[in-house]
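Pilot study result, target chain (271 residues):
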Amino acid sequence: MKLALLISTYNRPDALELCLISVFNQTELPDEILVADDGSGEMTKRLIEKYQTICNIPMVHVWHEDTGFELAKIRNKAIAQSTSDYIVQIDGDLILHPFFIRDHREFAREGSFVRASRIYLDEDLSQQKIQNLDYHVNRFEKGMTNFFSAFRLPFMWKYFETKYKTKGNERWEIHGCNMAFWRKDAIAVNGYNEDFNGWGPEDKEFVARLLNKGLQKRFLKFGGLVFHLWHPINTKENLKDNESLFEHAKRDGIVYCQNGIDKYLKVKDEG
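Predicted structure:
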């Protein structure tokens, strides 16, 4: 199985550098890295070029012009460019546990997609990590929340895999910053819905369509750990309209969105 790490980012090169350092210090590297860049400036471009020169695996910078929050679109463009079978998707403001890639690779199963946990670092601890480029995280450090989620316990995976957070509205819940899916399954539902404008919940709507297609959601609890660096809350001016798209997918059993990844696949094939 060829595995891609998809990292979304926007104008936060300091956090992205720390994230990349944690990637290159994995016990097992991905087969390719895709940086899905939603219109960042020159500093991010230079940072990625720096790591492309020292990286011994393919690292692709997928960028488009900044015309507002278009996370669904840039993720689609990155997935389209991937040459891997399996996509592990994160955000660029995370520190990855050293076994992150290994855990996701081991946990992957056909016919399913994966949600995994994130552990939050407060503002002070986040700034310390960024300033020192310190990718080591101790679960006992002051400034870490949801302490118990920070344990890596592979022997516990089977107890949570299909039973944890599967009832009611939790069925649709996902962390877009720590999830994994087969590329062919993403293409089968036409990827992310680009009708989403602004923040949220494009990841939940994507998951709703994967579920509607008959795929199984599995929870990687106590594995595939990420530590989320603090940032201000995103503005949510279009949240009401976006949530209506999500509700439509749930209510009407939508599998295939009309405004999705297919347009980039056609360009790739023609190229």
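One observation from the pilot: The domain at 3-270 is CATH 3.90.550.10 (Spore Coat Polysaccharide Biosynthesis Protein SpsA; Chain A). A full batch analysis is planned for the follow-on phase.
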